[in-house]
Structures are given as C-alpha cells and as structure tokens.
Amino acid sequence: MTDRTDLTAATSPTGTKLTPSAAWELLRDGNARFVGGTSSHPNQDAARRTSLANEQHPIAVIFGCSDSRLAAEIIFDVGLGDVFVVRTAGQVIDDAVLGSLEYSVDVLDIPLIVVLGHDSCGAVTAAVDSYVSGEMPPGFIRSLVERIIPSVISARRAGVKDVNGTVAENVRQISARLMESSMSVAKAVDEGRTAIIGVTYSLDNGTANPVRIIGDLDPDEIG
Q: Does the keyword Transferase apply (predicted)?
C-alpha cells in the first residue's frame, strides 16, 4: 500500500512522472482508504494550494460520469492537483471530452486515463429503457442515449440485460473508443506514455473495480 507521504511526493510540482501502474496503485490505495473509512484527505491545505498556483502535475485523468455521487477526488482520497477530471453523463464522448483528454496526455503528460462508470447510472438506464421500448427521450437527452445505445447492443449480444452489467460494458466500450476516436490518445498509449483503465464504482460499498485495461498497465498490479 502507498501511504500519504508517497502520494504527496509523487504529485508535487517537482515529482518524477509515475508509470501507469504506479498511478493506479495510488488511486487504488486511496479508494481502499475511502472504503474503509480511513480517508486521509491529502493535499488539501493552504500550502498545497499555493504550490499549485503556477503549474500542475496530476497523476491521472479521470473521465467519469457527472453523477453527484461519483466525486472522483473523494472516492480516490486525493486532493488539489492530484487528478485532472472530465465528466459527462454516462461518460459520453464528444469533441470537448477528446480535446480535454488530449490536453491531459500531450500537455500535462499524465500517465493514466481512468474511465469511471458506476452502478445504477441514470444515463445508461435511459439508454436501456429506450432500447427496450423503442422510444427516444426528448431534447438533448436523446443525444446522450444515442451515444450509449451501441454499448447496450453489445451487452445484449453477450447476454447482459441488467443496467449494472450494461454499465460495465459501456465502460469497456468507451475505453476502446478513446483509442479509435483520438489519434493523440492512441499514440500516447502505443508509445507507453499513458494507459487506459476502465473502472466501475459501487455506490453502495464505494469500491472501484477495473473492468478493462488498454496499454502498459500490469494486470498483476491492479488486483
């Protein structure tokens, strides 16, 4: 387990860049503290704030759902400057998301992209309901649902019909789609500068569990 001191050193402005596996270890350990009720709330004081006034060196970019119950800094027990966060309902990809992720890997040189979904996701539920009923929701909610429907179809082909199973499939599909949609992200992964890990979060017990790995991230190091 990585302690708070290691987290602070790893994410300081003068810290050495982490490997994808080391970055995930820090997040995994923070999640374990959160689950166990022993969160240390690192890097949230005035000194940390001052040190980040002119630069940032996050250990990961977290592309997660907008759900209010999925606050990345809390569930991974990190603080200011530790993670670069991008959020849309259902982790739907658009140009702004891709631009943000490309900035994170090419400019900030972040070693890990986390695609973070969660159980009982409202956006995925809406997509499943639309698939079953054949009726689409109104307004721009329709745009969200249309982008999630391919994951619903993929899940159904695998015999998965429940929402939480579809959430996991959506995370897997989005992780792969980042490679297909962004030449910049694909290049960073192929060169070993970053890796992608798809994760599902349990609203009930707070655990974050990997469901997909793309790139140089050792599966033995994420157990």
A: no
